[in-house]
Design a protein that fits this description.
- The complex is a heterodimer of chains A (135) and B (196).
- Chain A has 135 residues and is α+β, with helices and mostly antiparallel strands.
- Helix content of chain A is 38%, strand content 21%.
- Chain A has three helices and five strands, in the order βααββββα.
- Chain A has a five-stranded mixed beta sheet with strand order 1-5-4-3-2.
- In chain A, strand 2 (67-69) and strand 3 (75-78) form a beta hairpin.
- In chain A, helix 1 (22-34) crosses helix 2.
- The longest helix of chain A is centred in the C-terminal third of the chain and has 20 residues, at 115-134.
- Among the domains of chain B are: 8-85, lambda repressor-like DNA-binding domains (434 Repressor (Amino-terminal Domain)); 101-153, no CATH class.
- Helix content of chain B is 67%, strand content 1%.
- Chain B has ten helices and one strand, in the order βαααααααααα.
- The chains are: A alpha+beta (135), B mainly alpha (196).
- Chain A binds chain B through residues 1, 3, 8, 11, 15, 17-22, 24-25, 28-29, 32-33, 36-37, 39-41, 43-44, 46-48, 50-52, 55-56, 61-66, 80-83, 103, 106, 129, 133, and chain B through 1-9, 11-12, 15-18, 20-21, 24-25, 27-30, 32-33, 35-37, 39-40, 43-44, 46, 48-49, 64, 67-70, 73, 147, 168.
Chain lengths: 135, 196
């Protein structure tokens, strides 16, 4: 799908890219085996966020119930939305939109039980790997 | 650092090992095209779900449901409500799958021609309006030419090397004739150099 903006899109706007961490890849593999419906729902919301990111001027413009702001510019995307046939467990995909490089980092994915560790990991990763790289 | 991907589907296809999951995720993404577009429209107007709900006169939960609904579950009323609240005209179209990108470009070129004719007919005997519309023609000519030039430059190495990046003319604020002539002169000189 591509958004047809009827000529509204600003000329020269660069496209955002996605970048996944090794930790995300490992957790993705675990979730697609153990919680495929949760991961698919989170991925659907990620797609909505990512497509909109490419069309607006500022990531802060993208607001929805499935997006949660965490410390340090990190955001968590959850599984909410849509009429699900089965009850989905709370799942959170942690992301970091780096506006300077127009890169959306997929940091990790977890549940309620791993929330604290996940956020700590994300903060550390952003500080050491992303902000350092920009500097 | 990891691998870079252009979109979510490309990422899923690359890192997922389970085919059943790939199908599930693809269905989730492709089945909500309209809802994603409505979501984008709201964000582009800098509105929260609550603010849009107030404009439409419905609950926030209805907005949330609309923006996560499958295409088949959306109603014409949903589309009309978004259009009215965001002060937009709703246009619906069908396109045959065999229509190619070049056909679309040609279609839009003919549309431009039709709109320019419409614009010219507004001028009638009004000299001031004629002059303004004339300025607009020059700006449009320059801007469309620039867009095509830039597209061509991404294919042609020699054109790219010249780093020709004149400012775009803002159609909303027409430039003075002297500035326009200066820009067009510069444009022609550079074109001559590039063809030598």
């Amino acid at each position: 799908m591509s958004f047809n903006l009827g000529g509204e899109k600003r000329i020269g706007m660069g496209e955002w890219t996605l970048e996944v961490t090794d930790v995300y890849e490992r957790r993705h593999e675990h979730y697609e085996k153990k919680h495929p419906h949760e991961l698919a729902a989170v991925t659907g919301n990620l797609d909505t966020y990512f497509k909109t990111l490419n069309e607006v001027n500022n990531p802060l413009q993208v607001k929805a119930g499935f997006i949660h702001n965490e410390p340090g510019g990190i955001k968590a995307i959850d599984q909410k939305g849509g009429r699900q046939k089965i009850k989905l467990q709370q799942t959170r995909l942690y992301i970091f939109p780096d506006t300077s490089s127009k890169t959306l980092y997929l940091l990790t994915v977890g549940d309620k039980g791993t929330q604290r560790d996940d956020i700590n990991f994300c903060r550390e990763y952003v500080r050491k790997e992303i902000i350092k790289k920009v500097e | 650092m990891g691998t870079k991907y252009k979109n979510v589907l490309e990422m899923i296809k690359s890192i997922s090992k389970d085919d059943a999951f790939k199908e599930l995720a693809t269905r989730e993404i492709k089945g909500k095209t309209l809802a994603k577009f409505l979501f984008y429209l709201r964000c582009n107007h800098n509105l929260s779900q609550k603010q849009l709900a107030e404009k439409i006169g419905c609950s926030q939960s209805r907005i949330s449901k609309i923006e996560s609904a499958l295409d088949k579950d959306l109603t014409m009323q949903d589309l009309l409500d978004y259009a009215k609240a965001l002060n937009l005209n709703l246009e619906i179209g069908y396109r045959h799958p065999s229509v190619r990108i070049v056909d679309l470009i040609k279609y839009h070129a003919f549309k431009i021609k039709a709109y320019l004719n419409q614009l010219n007919s507004l001028a009638k005997e009004d000299d001031l309006l004629k002059e303004s519309i004339g300025k607009f023609h020059i700006e449009a000519l320059f801007n469309i030419g620039k867009i095509i030039w830039e597209s061509l430059a991404t294919l042609d190495f020699k054109l790219k090397e010249q780093k020709r990046e004149p400012d775009i003319i803002h159609i909303s604020a027409p430039l003075e004739r002297a500035k326009l002539e200066q820009l067009l002169k510069k444009d022609n000189t550079e074109l001559e150099h590039s063809t030598k």
